[in-house]
Design a protein that fits this description.
Strand content: 15-25%
Number of strands: 13
Number of helices: 23
Radius of gyration: 30 Å
Strand order of the largest sheet: 11-10-9-12-13
Helix content: 40-55%
Shape: globular
Structural class: alpha+beta
Largest sheet: 5 strands, mixed
Length: about 600
């Protein structure tokens, strides 16, 4: 078993294969696997495989250290298993302790500094199966023999010295693609999928009015990217990824990208962009105003993003961070995980997702549901939680009654926001529905009384500062609502927006506002499967809805309300891809994007 860091695993595997071939093992080859130390931190790991060989004897862990700090320690894991623990100095200032747990059939590697009073901390844990594996005829790894048998190996080593992720990605794509196929087969597959997806999108979008979404993201190499997507009938299409490396994300720079991409996307997919939605960052807000200055495109900020910001207003991040550390501990530390799993009714730790804005609530709820179980574990295994600073910190946090009360208060504040987020992030949610979810959220806080006074003030501030007039207009003409809960100030904003943006239709909308719409609303509610715009067109034929307003309604009622679908799309490609997202062609339907 070889354990290396800093790229040394490749060199070791190459040397081992050369030695084994000299000894007559001609079928040896080099394999590559992907190791994820934590989300967004993937590493390549090279292994030498020797097929059709029976293994007998003791198991040793060979630790050669790193290229910068070379050592050569042989750790007798069979002795660790026999004795329970073995101490091994790793350097003049660090000592390792290897222990074995019969209950988990796992090894644990601890480390501590040589300083007086220093305590051991868990470095990592592993099982024998992590390092002893049976090679099938077609193992789920890549054959890197071609790299080992020619000078490509030295080309790779030189690229590693430069520490250039982009050069390394290009190297593997040129020689042996990360997808596991060789000789260009993977590139052909990607090209075929890309063509198929683009054709499907074009068939769906041709002749339709769509919303353009713009959002910034970064890939696993932390390269800054700008994603452009279009939304139609609740379905997102990622049509462009622009590498913005070396450029500050000023509103002017972002506007120049969007203004360039709009005609290209419209031409590529034969659609009409009528809306533009971004997050609510100041540079994005100004960018929207630049783009729509001489345009009929309707621009606004993301409603779900505002709810996410509200969540941060009503509870401190410090509370959630503490609970996340507890959840990670009982998920990642094998002993703690097994103790929790052995309790009837206990549930697995839940960690927040980067692409689900309301998932922090799930982590807090997991903690309160399992709090007594966690306390019992700490009490039953007191020796374990007195060993190491991390274990002690977990014990202190779980036994903190004030923190538990704060978590309970945070859940009370976040639950209404989470319910609204779930509604706003649904594929069928319109701008009018987004207003309705905000109205319901404010009512829930009002109904809580004094307890929610601060939360209500924060929610009203977010809502009043971010809800654009087009939201109120959409709420006013949507047949499910017809503006039933709009305040006088919101009615005024919707009227002013129509007068400024669609002045020829102002008088029709003004007259419509003063009419009794209860009968029309009842008819719509009795036909739940009827699309709002189709219903309004039918009513206009009957003379019950101004025909001129149907043109505006056909635009406003299809506008996507949030970026969440694209956040999830970005997160999926960013977290799962071993290469830069911008270089993965099948995720980018618009072939002219600067990617």
């Amino acid at each position: 078993m070889l354990l290396g860091q800093g790229g040394i695993c490749l060199t070791l595997s190459y040397m081992l294969i050369a030695l084994l071939e000299h000894l007559g093992f001609s079928d040896c080859y080099m394999g590559m696997g992907m190791i994820r130390t934590k989300p967004g931190m993937e590493m390549l790991h090279f292994i030498a495989f020797i097929p059709n060989v029976d293994f007998e004897g003791d198991l040793w862990l060979i630790d050669p250290g790193t290229l910068l700090a070379p050592i050569f320690h042989a750790v007798p894991l069979h002795k660790v298993k026999q004795l329970g623990s073995v101490y091994m100095p790793r350097s003049s200032f660090v000592v390792n302790k290897f222990t074995y747990s019969p209950e988990q059939n796992s090894y644990f590697r601890f480390y501590k500094l040589m300083d007086e009073g220093a305590e051991f901390n868990v470095f990592y844990d592993f099982t024998e199966e992590n390092y002893t594996m049976e090679c099938e005829e077609l193992p789920d790894v890549m054959d890197y023999s071609r790299v080992a048998r020619n000078r490509l190996l030295f080309e790779y080593i030189e690229l590693k010295k430069k520490k250039s992720d982009k050069d390394l990605v290009a190297f593997w794509e040129k020689n042996l693609l990360l997808t596991g196929y060789v000789e260009g087969k993977a590139r052909r597959i990607l090209d075929e999928v890309h063509t198929e997806l683009k054709e499907t999108a074009r068939n769906k979008l041709e002749g339709q009015k769509v919303t353009l979404t713009v959002d910034g993201w970064s890939n696993v190499s932390n390269d800054p990217l700008l994603g452009l997507g279009i939304s139609y009938m609740g379905k997102p299409y990622l049509v462009g990824t622009v590498d913005t490396s070396g450029n500050s994300h000023t509103s002017t720079y972002l506007a120049s990208i969007v203004e360039k991409e709009i005609p290209l996307i419209e031409n590529e997919f034969k659609c009409k962009i009528v809306g533009l939605v971004t997050d609510n960052a100041s540079n994005m807000n100004l960018m929207r105003s630049i783009v729509v200055k001489d345009s009929t495109i309707i621009a606004y900020g993301c409603g779900a993003h505002q709810l996410n910001l509200l969540a941060k207003d009503v509870y401190p991040d410090s509370i959630v961070k503490k609970i996340i550390e507890i959840a990670k501990f009982f998920r990642n530390v094998h002993l703690a995980k097994s103790w929790l799993e052995s309790i009837q009714g206990a549930t697995k730790p839940v960690l927040p997702s980067e692409v689900r804005w309301n998932s922090a609530l799930n982590t807090l709820e997991w903690y309160t549901r399992n709090w007594q179980n966690l306390k019992n574990i700490i009490s039953d295994h007191s020796d374990f939680f007195e060993c190491g600073s991390t274990n002690k910190a977990v014990k202190k946090t779980v036994n903190d009654l004030v923190l538990y009360k704060n978590v309970d208060d945070a859940i009370s504040a976040l639950s209404p926001i989470s319910q609204s987020l779930n509604g706003i992030q649904s594929d069928s949610c319109t701008l009018a529905d987004a207003v309705d979810h905000w109205k319901k959220l404010l009512k829930k806080y009002r109904d809580k009384g004094v307890e929610a006074k601060d939360w209500l003030e924060a929610a009203e501030k977010r809502y009043n500062n971010s809800a654009p007039p087009v939201w109120f207009f959409s709420y006013a003409i949507h047949p499910r609502y017809f503006g039933k809960d709009l305040t006088p100030a919101e009615w005024t904003k919707s009227l002013e927006w129509v007068k400024e943006s669609f002045e020829p239709f102002y008088s029709d909308f003004m007259n419509f506002v003063g009419e009794d719409k209860s009968a029309m609303q009842s008819s719509y509610l009795a036909a739940p499967n009827c699309k709002p715009i189709n219903f309004l067109r039918t009513q206009s034929i009957c003379g019950k809805f101004p025909a001129n307003l149907c043109e505006i309604a056909s635009t406003v009622l299809i506008l996507v309300r949030v970026l969440s679908a694209f956040s999830a799309l970005w997160g999926m490609f960013t977290l799962s891809s071993g290469t830069a997202l911008a270089s993965t062609k099948c995720t980018n339907l618009h072939s002219d994007a600067d990617s």
